[in-house]
Known about the structure:
The complex is a heterodimer.
Chain A: H1 2-11, H2 13-20, H3 24-50, H4 59-62, H5 66-86, H6 89-92, H7 95-122, H8 133-154
Helix pairs in contact in A: 2-5, 3-5, 3-8, 7-8
Chain B: H1 2-9, H2 12-19, H3 26-51, H4 66-87, H5 95-119, H6 123-127, H7 130-152
Amino acid sequence: MTEAIVDWLKATSLSQAMSMSPVLWPICEMLHFIGLALLIGGAGLMDLRLMGFLKSVPVSAVMQVRKWAVLGVVINLITGVLFFIGAPGQYVYNSAWYYKLLFLAVAIINVAIFETRQGKRMLTLAAGEDTPASFKIAGAVSMGSWLMVLYFGRMLPFIGNAF
Amino acid sequence: MSELLSSLESSGFSTWVRESPSIWAYPTILTLHTLGLAVLVGANWMVDLRVLGFARALPLAVLSRAFPIMWAGFWVNAVSGVLLFVADPAKGTTRLFMSKLAIIAAGVALIIMLKRRLYGRAVEMDAAGPVIKAMAFVSIALWVAAIATGRWMAYAV
């Protein structure tokens, strides 16, 4: 099953372009690292406020950088899918990739739960107000899981011998 | 110079970083370099974007706290970068690497200038000026270029 998907993907012209072109893959890598910096910068700032740092700023003000974090995630999902299509075997037979996806899922589910359950309450927290424990946990889970996504992403060539 | 580099390359430490199968050698140093990049550039871009007029509800005063975070990222990358250089000194003689270093030097100089301008005198006076906006714009572009040259080093022969 997995092998069939890998073979089918590798036969696509998009996969051929990604693996044959001398510039496509490096350009996607550059974009992937730019997306990473946007994500860590934006999410890091929001997570710090949720965790109870930077209390002099209302939570709603910090949330204004959310669009930059989202932009980083979108850039990285697109380039990530292109890497996967370009060399599927490097990922599907690689345990580091499954850990990366696991922590990506944790990060996204954490945001989804927090936004739906606390989204409105969050915006009422004014300057100087501390965050409740549930906010601190959500911020710590977010920061921790994004750092694990970074870790297992960087470790892809070194864990699992799939490259 | 090349003699110095080749003796560095054949040193025990260089060989360890380059060839050790341990996850604590090359892979960990590379991961720290990526983490430092994300912290330095991420914090820097948030300040730059605010100066350019995005996220206006965020007071510039609180973003002064982003500067120590940038420096933390910078030093992690200065140290991990030296270790990566020691592992493969030949890469350190390329024009590409020299360009990367020059871009980083300019980027760091701009961080210092931007901080002085933002917090040196009355914040409101300078914050919206065209000069500081131009500095923020160039700062974003320099770190894009630093990432691009750094990534390209993995593919250039």
